[in-house]
Each structure stands twice: as structure tokens, then as C-alpha cells.
Design a protein that fits this description.
26% helix; single chain; Double Stranded RNA Binding Domain; three-stranded antiparallel sheet; 81 residues; alpha+beta
Length: 81
């Protein structure tokens, strides 16, 4: 059995009631939650593992963010007078 390393970008979104929702954009529907950033990251690793296991089981291609460029945009909405 060979090991392969995959790279995934993840988004931590703070929740109003506390904790963080974690989204893995390249794995559609792969979302998890943790009470702290450390727990959220651990949960993300677990969710990615489960997601990839399902893809492998069903012989589906495995996405990889190795060459994905990541950026953010700040947008200011100006109200019309």
C-alpha cells in the first residue's frame, strides 16, 4: 500500500454561539464543527478522512488543493442616497 499526501484548504467560520464551523471547499458538503480552533482542526482532519474513504470506496476521483490559489476580497457596499 502506498501513501499519498493531499492538500486541502479549510475555512474556519466563528459561530455566534461559540466555536467554529469548518468548511472544506473542494470537498462538496464536507463541513464539521469544533468548540475551539484546535478541536475544529482535529474534526476537519476526521471529516476529510471519512470523505476520502467514501470516495475511494466508490472509486471516485479524489480532489486535491495542491495547486489551488487562495485569496480573499474585501467588498464595501455603498448605500445609494
Amino acid at each position: 500500500m502506498t501513501n499519498k499526501t493531499y492538500h486541502y484548504n479549510i475555512v474556519f467560520r466563528p459561530e455566534p454561539e461559540g466555536g467554529y464551523t469548518v468548511i472544506v471547499p473542494s470537498l462538496s458538503g464536507c463541513v464539521t464543527y469544533g468548540k475551539t480552533l484546535k478541536e475544529a482542526k482535529r474534526m476537519a482532519v476526521d471529516a476529510i478522512h471519512a470523505y476520502l474513504s467514501s470516495l475511494k470506496k466508490h472509486k471516485e476521483p479524489i480532489p486535491n488543493d495542491a495547486e489551488t490559489l487562495l485569496a480573499s476580497i474585501e467588498y464595501r457596499h455603498v448605500k445609494a442616497s
